[in-house]
Amino acid sequence: MKRLLTLALLVTNSYSISAQTENPNKETLKKKYENSDIDKEIRKKMQSDIQYPDSIVLAPLHFINTFIPLDTANLDFQRFSVDVEIKTKIPKGYNFYISPFNGSFNGIPFYGGIQTSSDGRPVKGGKERKIGRGGIFSRWMERDTAALKGEGYYASSDGEGDFISVRNKLKWDKGTYRLTLYKSGEVKGKPLPAGYKSKDLMFAWGEYEHSWVTMSVQDLQTGKKVIIGSMAFPGKKLSISPYNIIFLEQYGAVINFAKEKPKAANSAINYKDLPVVKLDIKNILMNGKPIIPAKVTTLVNRTHHPEQSKIAMPIPILSKDAYDAKTGVLSYEAGEFQSWK
Prior knowledge:
Residues 1-19 form the signal peptide. The protein is mainly β. It has one domain (7-339). The strands form 3 sheets. Strands 3, 7, 10, 11, 12, 16, 17, 19 and 20 form a 9-stranded antiparallel sheet that branches. 7% of the residues lie in helices and 45% in strands. The relative contact order is 0.24.
């Protein structure tokens, strides 16, 4: 007989950002990924034999993924920044993630952004806890917490593939914020092998030279800056991926399209009650130089829960987007029903 777990349990477990686990040894981790990758590991974690009603969208859901081409040939990464202008207030209790940083350094994936509901373990010691609104900066293919630095909170988990992460409290809402990633130091070690591939650099802390990358968020209205924390990436010179991805995500609750709330779902929000979030992302700078591509590509609903394929209902479009190729400004509106396709 199939296990009929509650949707609330699924939501909690499948998107617990921290989900702290003990750190396995490097050889075990390397062996794990000999015939696997991050996507496969996420699917393993999220798969279940739960039966779902055909009226919901599981969490998490990316309303949009925007792919921004970067001219990274021979680029020696130093600094990457974007300005995020949030034009609407985001209500308390709504789980929303604005992530303008998604790429890789020397083939090691990372992401970063601001969330309405974050969590983590205090760097100074203590149990995992909710921290409310905050900033987050994560990298994959490392579990050694010596490869992170911060004054706030951290995570080390296999909940979304093996990753480590820094987080910090951040008061943010309607307003304009500058999010920045910048190289902030180096760690001695062996030079990276010639012709390396990304798998050669997995779980490489303590073996190869590394560079520290720090994330900060500045409120452009008050000037106040908060350091989210720092992550170490293999290599003295950092090459960044040729595309950066921006995403807007709803997490922590299923979106319901039926008149009645699903019986098994404690955490559900009717699509008519979704807050509408409007924002612009602009002033994108790489090493101090503006990035204004002639064209960007935005996909809707591209990233969603792996088990959404079990649900017959198509995912409706719940967002609008626009790009001004003259100014480089990306405009988004997420949370309002647009169409079924």
